[in-house]
Design brief:
It contains eight helices and seven strands. With 203 residues, the chain is of the alpha/beta class. The chain has two domains: 37 residues, no CATH class; 155 residues, Rossmann fold, CATH 3.40.50. It has a seven-stranded mixed β-sheet. Helix 1 packs across helix 2. The longest helix is centred in the N-terminal third of the chain and has 23 residues. The protein starts with a helix and ends with a strand. The protein binds S-adenosylmethionine. S-adenosylmethionine binds next to loops.
């Protein structure tokens, strides 16, 4: 929130334009959180959720697997896995989104999708719990801590899958994932452009 601080406690009086720019930046920062709290269906209708979900299916076989989807949101990845998985735990820290996923699972008649509270650095599962651990648009703030926690909850021989949603110019998480031996490829997120996806089998 440095942009807010610099607008609110300036060394000189801010201009109306500086104040407006600070307002816009602040609103952009909290935009998604407001949508999650007010009406998750607005997020669920965003164009990039109309991606080709085959991009996930072709990375691994979900059939009969225990799957964790971190930062599940409205369940973009979770509901693809749930077509064939034994069970999908949709880890989501926002209570309103957990309620939304539960309701969506009921209306889509998916009986094996379980929303659960947690974060990418504090997953509520024992070591080696899941066959597949994945996350869409959630990895990257603290790559080392996030990767370490994802690996902890995944069985040896299991899969890690990430669709971070960042642009192709992002380097910090990308370079970290390559040093950890992830494979990667590109795919299209409608209206958001070409994004990277990553996958790795846990040793
Ligand atoms: C941009 S949405 C992505 C939702 C969904 N995975 C997708 O690909 O459409 C990011 C989600 O991650 C959740 N989130 C934010 N910080 C998180 C964290 N530290 N750990 C787990 N989830 C987090 C948010 O509440 C939100 O639902």
């Amino acid at each position: 929130m440095d942009h807010v601080r610099s607008a609110l406690i300036p060394s000189t009086e801010p201009s109306p334009e500086q104040i407006r720019q600070a307002e816009i930046k602040t609103l952009n920062t909290i935009n998604d959180l407001v949508v999650y709290a007010v009406d998750p269906s607005i997020y669920d209708a965003r164009p990039f959720l109309g991606w080709d979900s085959e991009e996930l299916r072709k990375l691994t076989d979900f059939n009969g697997k225990i799957v964790i989807d971190i930062g599940s949101g409205t369940g973009r990845l979770a509901f693809v896995a749930a077509e064939t998985a034994a069970v999908v735990f949709a880890v989501e820290p926002v209570g309103n989104l957990r309620r939304y996923i539960k309701q969506k699972a009921l209306s889509l008649k998916f009986t094996k999708v379980y929303p659960i509270d947690g974060t990418i650095t504090d997953l509520p599962f024992p070591p080696g719990f899941a066959d597949i651990t994945m996350g869409g648009h959630v990895f990257g703030d603290s790559p080392e801590a996030e990767y370490s926690e994802m690996k902890r909850v995944t069985k040896p021989g299991g899969m890690l899958i990430l669709c971070p949603g960042t642009s192709q110019t992002e380097t910090k998480a990308h370079e970290y994932l390559l040093t950890q031996g992830f494979s990667w490829d590109l795919f299209e997120e409608p209206q958001d452009g070409v994004k990277r996806k990553y996958w790795k089998r846990v040793e």
